Amino acid sequence: MTNLATQLPPTKQALLLEQHEALLEACNLSMLYAPGKGFEALNLQLYRGEVLAIVGESGSGKTTLLKALSGRLTPQSGSVTFSSEQHSVDLYQLSEAQRRRLIREHFGIVHQHPLDGLRPMVSAGGNIGERLMEAGCRHYGDIRKQALNWLKAVEIDSSRIDDLPITFSGGMQQRLQIARNLVTHPQLVFMDEPTGGLDVSVQARLLDLLRKLVSELQLAVVIVTHDLAVARLLADRIMVMKQGQVVESGLCDQVLDDPHHAYTQLLVSSVLQQ
Ligand SMILES: Nc1ncnc2c1ncn2[C@@H]1O[C@H](COP(=O)(O)OP(=O)(O)OP(=O)(O)O)[C@@H](O)[C@H]1O
User: Where is the chain membrane-spanning (predicted)?
Assistant: First the structure.
């Protein structure tokens, strides 16, 4: 067992023991728009059921990295390997159509602005049902039933099933976006600041829900956030970025309780002063 696994809670240790290869692995990955803008020579591994938080200052390359990891931005060099139970593929060796299919079948992508991940002129139920139809479901009754179940799971009243997302509050839209992503049971979910732009109380409710879903569905998640409290609540591991470089990484509680790099220390102390 790796050092990392021995330091995780027993359920996570068991999960890591069962698996030999990472669900997602980035090797020597680089995408620089200009010196210091993007990220460079980055390596990471994510295992099944594990939550990795990527934190760092604005402009440090977090979103660019998330896009490259999730198959939405071809890097200048390096590889991103996704290993499902059936096969192991380098995302950027696939054709565009193959990559799109893999993303649809295996990944969830939760955007900071929910309307970027929803169809605003399609009903809430339709937003969830559409993903099921893309996955091959054809029975209207089943699709509606699953949509209702998912609305309930994300705490949206079933009476809103035929309403358009644009009539929802920001928090509800974000919960609907999460339902749309999770209805097809992806193994891996990428989230970019999922609680950004929401009121504090709405954020807290959404975080509780995310924590519950991540644990119940044993999701692997890569979450970008500038909020260390979000990282602490959701993540097993954390990666701290500054100007396109990973300056520190490790178990989330350990890094946040005992930061070694001066920049991580600054991030942690600035939260304590708030
Ligand atoms: N398409 C692009 N073309 C040129 N430069 C870009 C592009 N996208 C991002 N950048 C630059 O790359 C750097 C990293 O951007 P990125 O959005 O990845 O950072 P971030 O850490 O996610 O920031 P934030 O927390 O503000 O979202 C920034 O300096 C940004 O201006």
Answer: none
